[in-house]
Amino acid sequence: MSEHSAVTAELYARVQHFYAHQMQALDAGRFEDYAATFTKDGVFQHSPGAEPAVGRDGIVAELIAFHRRFDGDPVRRRHWFNHIALAPLADGSLRSTVYALVVTVRPGGRPEIAPSCLVHDELVVEEGAIELRSRRIEHDQMF
Amino acid sequence: MSEHSAVTAELYARVQHFYAHQMQALDAGRFEDYAATFTKDGVFQHSPGAEPAVGRDGIVAELIAFHRRFDGDPVRRRHWFNHIALAPLADGSLRSTVYALVVTVRPGGRPEIAPSCLVHDELVVEEGAIELRSRRIEHDQMF
Amino acid sequence: MSEHSAVTAELYARVQHFYAHQMQALDAGRFEDYAATFTKDGVFQHSPGAEPAVGRDGIVAELIAFHRRFDGDPVRRRHWFNHIALAPLADGSLRSTVYALVVTVRPGGRPEIAPSCLVHDELVVEEGAIELRSRRIEHDQMF
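Output (structure tokens, whole complex):
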């Protein structure tokens, strides 16, 4: 249980802040900003069973396609994160395992909170910059 | 997407901790402690369309008036925050944009989680102390 | 309202990270890892009115007994934390007061989010390691 000790408090706070801006970009529909948080060859699998999107252009295209389903259905979505657990990988990158809940709001409605997910990230820290090498989402209700 | 780099990890963690104490004070009904987290001329607009309260005494008065609505309706309220995104402003202060959910519990009941909000704060950091210059709450269901 | 100033940002981030690993261990059923986050004579009262478990073996035994109730009822539980508020105690340890929500998911179902709790912890920081001396859970609906 001391694997967290291998990650400095300084890096931990930076990862939290990285996620805050990243997820606010996603939820605001700023897909290019979201994609820019990935490495150039970053891999993003937003749903179990979905084909992963690869590269920043691929990620933007996937997000545009996904959100097209909600044309004519005005919806605001907020991805909440909790318990960001970091562990160093052998190559110097970081594994990050995070709880997520999706809060969905429609005009005049109350928030729906679903699904509950586990986020599996690999983060690369180079010259002070944090980038996401891969993200895979696991859904809690599928077991 | 690198605007977060302009804020140190040290300041980021301090802002998180500031919010933790601030919001626990509010939810515990310690309105003077809550008001004391604002600057002397701080501005607090807790609901869209509401007249903003100005100054610490004004903030306390507004909170007392607001909570009077719940006389005879015992209720516990917890304001949850997520994804605190900081960005430096030109004058050296910080813009802070935060997700919020209000958890409401009544005796013997289950939590209701609503509304989902966006918190727009301006924070002043002076001689090591953090103070809130203004807070404006946006409700997600109003769009 | 400046009691948070007595806790460094570095320690604050470390406590957050400690909780992330600790609670992911609990929710994954790694009870020995969870118990190892307590001091040798650590005290854990997971529900109001329950007899507190004492010591790591006692904590593991209590968790096994508690989860036996859910034999034949597949359930995934995620404990969310928010607003970790630290305050130094006279003996150099830390009081930590934290909001918690329990997210429960069953196969194919939607998350249930209950109860809302207040976590009362005492943390010991020695030679760089964080350990939990005691944890007591208060339920919000009991008032």
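Strands of chain A lie at 38-45, 53-54, 76-88, 94-105, 112-126, 129-139.
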